[in-house]
Amino acid sequence: MGFLHEFLQQMVNGISLGSIYALLALGYTMVYGIVKLINFAHGDILMLGAFGGFFVLAAYGVTPLTFILALLVGMLVCATVGIVIEKTCYKPLRSAPRINALITAIGVSIFIENGARVVKAIGPNPKQFPTFKTVNFPIGDINISQIQIIVFVVSILLMFLLTYIVNYTKLGKAMRAVSFDRQAAYLMGINVDWIISFTFALGSALAAAAGILFASAYPQVEPYMGIIPGLKAFVAAVLGGIGSIPGAMVGGFIMGIAETLTKGFISSQLADAIAFGILILILVVKPSGILGKNVSEKV
Amino acid sequence: MKKNIANGLTLAAIAVVFTGIMTALVFFGVIDEYTAQILSLAGINVIVALSLNLISGFTGQLALGHAGFMAVGAYTTAYCIMKLNLPMFLAILIGGLVTAVFGLVIGFPTLRLRGDYLAIVTLGFGEIIRVIMINLEQITGGAAGLKGIPSFTEDILLAPALSLLWVFSVMIITIILVSNLIKSSYGRAILSVREDEIAANAMGINVFYYKMYAFTISAFIAGVGGGLYAPFFGYLNPTMFNFLKSVDFLVIVVLGGMGSITGTVIAGFVLTYLQEFLRFLQDYRLVIYPLLLIFIMLFRPSGLMGNREISILGLWQRLFKSKNQSQSKVDKAGER
Questions:
Q1: Of A139, B51, B253, B321, whose CB count within 10 A is highest?
Q2: Is there a domain that residue B214 lies in?
Q3: How far apart are CA B263 and CA B308, in angstroms?
Q4: CB-based contacts of A268, cutoff 8 Å, min separation 6
Q5: pLDDT for B96-119, tens place per residue?
């Protein structure tokens, strides 16, 4: 009891939270790997996904079937949004200075947030997210809720699916080729534009799933809900090594556990600050991240 | 050399006369209190936007936490005035210096790396500083805010004129500071970092040092801007310094042109006025700013002014000394 019990309980919470961060971090890392852009709007895609799920669940009630439907609808909507954003806002700036693309990404992010605020159906006020009734499974004296299990299982399934797509399909091979050397990939007959759009769609779909899982675990949705998870997931991606897919997963879990341990043992208000502290620490110690490669800049 | 001093004196005289006239106009009620308020607010916005332009426009490193720097400056100034009873001038200066220390601490780990990280770290900093301000209740008053900060003067009739005088004086000093910095050898080094870090490095410029230099000065100016905020509003609240506030400054810099001081000044005044003017649109206003940002980046990335400047001296010479065409052209070249 006491310390060990609290520690294990926070580990369970942390793994559940961490799997959400991992899903979100995957989007950052894939997009960064392929176009070298920090997609600031990624956290807001999470918000859109959560609202997509919210409308489905609010309309049809919460059953396992509607939950899966909500996931699918959210992912589809966000994949489309991801492609639209890429085509309209990022593609024209691919050869522009990097700071321009970053500023555009900020613009897109705020446009989505404030746009959601203005739209009647979403509005500025937080809404209760319909979710399963919490059922706890006590193991020893550690409580695991079934929502935590769902979050973990869905995330792991999606991560396996992504790993399969990236490593064992032709599309995945093309993605890896484009991220390795865009020009050479183009010369090899890979449709680079299409692959980049596909990457955005994939990342956005994962973000949507993360959004619905996040909203199920912390049942509240509002237009600005994506900012803080987005920031933390970005830190997770940097921690794991930005551009590395397994790195993003590892980073996500570490971030989740670090956050819940801070909440449990130090102070719940510091939980947000800890992400920032971790980021500074990695940048000082090992900027390439845990699984990242050191890339020297070429002229 | 003599010419430089003469030009400097001319400019200083113009600045003093301009500030004097504006203050007098407010004092005698030609400009009403509401407009004076907007003008002062625009002045503060210009100060902070200039500081952001220094790091993002001139040095090419995107920073997204200037509202956080403002918050540090504002609360430090308020603390110095209320608890330590320091005079206004000293309090604002200390606010700036404390903020510069924050800039140093944040810049050190991040500026060694490529620009992208600065954006996200400063963004994080801006969010964290707000959380800290909410939690440090003894000093900052927490989420309820800090009330009763003394204004620039106790005389209510004088207040609008004196606020304007303070803000415009600091704004003009900032403009002079930044434009002189850019023209100095330090400024040239900073510009070279923006153009090409690797080439600058190869030419023997310590890229990290100059980035730190620009970032710390930028933080200092933003802190001073925040310091003016405290007595101007007389009330501080952590939500005043959220991320969207940082973006407001970014919009000013991008619209004016990254790397143009004149552009920032013009855009600062125009956008601050526009913000008041567009109040009838209510929440839809929130969508216009980000759209503006996206459209400028897509269709006119150089903003209104690009990196050109309007020089008062150049204008002066063109108007009154047009006979010596060639002479004035040489002067203008030296001016830039």
A1: B51
A2: yes
A3: 8
A4: A262
A5: 999 999 999 888 888 887 767 888
Residue whose tokens read 């400019």: B11
**Is the distance from CB of B3 to CB of B305 less than 8 angstroms?**
no
* C-alpha span between B153 and B194 (Å, rounded): 42
Query: Mean of the per-residue pLDDT values for chain B?
Result: 84
Provide, as residue numbers in chain B, all residues whose Cβ is less than 8 Å from the Cβ of A228. Answer: 127
Task: Please give the residue range of the domain that contains residue B85.
Answer: 2-242
Number of domains in chain A: 1
Mean pLDDT of A197-206: 94
Judging contacts by C-beta atoms under 8 Å, the chain A residues touching residue B291 are 107, 111
Q: Are A242 and A289 in contact (CB under 8 A)?
A: yes
pLDDT (tens digit, 9 = 90+) per residue, B215-251? 999 999 999 999 998 888 888 888 888 888 888 899 8
Q: Looking at A45-49, A284-288, B193-197, which range is the least confident one?
A: A284-288
H or E element at residue A222: none
* A99 contacts on B by Cβ (under 8 Å): 56, 60-62, 115, 258
* Higher pLDDT, residue B335 or A239: A239
Cβ atoms B224, B47 nearer than 8 A: yes
Amino acid residing at A205:
A
The amino acid sitting at A291 is L
Length of chain B: 336
Give the domain range for residue A194: 10-121+145-285
- Residues 126-145 (B) with a CB less than 8 A from some CB of A: 127-128, 131-132, 135
- CA-to-CA separations, B13 to B10, B181, B206, B232, in angstroms, rounded: 5, 20, 37, 26
B247, amino acid identity: V
What CA–CA distance (Å, rounded) separates A143 from A129? Answer: 22
Reported ipTM: the value is 0.84
Which candidate from A103, A124, A276 shows the least CB-CB separation from B62?
A: A103
Interface contact B297-A107, CB threshold 8 A: yes
Report the amino acid identity of residue B171. Answer: M
Could you tell me if A243 and A7 are in contact, meaning their C-beta atoms sit under 8 angstroms apart? no
For residue B282, being part of any structural domain is answered with no
> What pLDDT is attached to residue A296?
61
Interface A–B counts its CB contacts (< 8 A) at: 114
CA distance B88 to B77: 8
Give dist(CA B264, CA B303) in Å, integer.
10
Instruction: Give the number of domains in chain B.
Output: 1
Predicted TM-score of the model (pTM): 0.86
- CATH number of the domain enclosing A57: 1.10.3470
Quick count: other Cβ atoms within 10 Å of Cβ B5?
A: 9
For A152-172, write each residue's pLDDT tens digit. Answer: 999 999 999 999 999 999 999
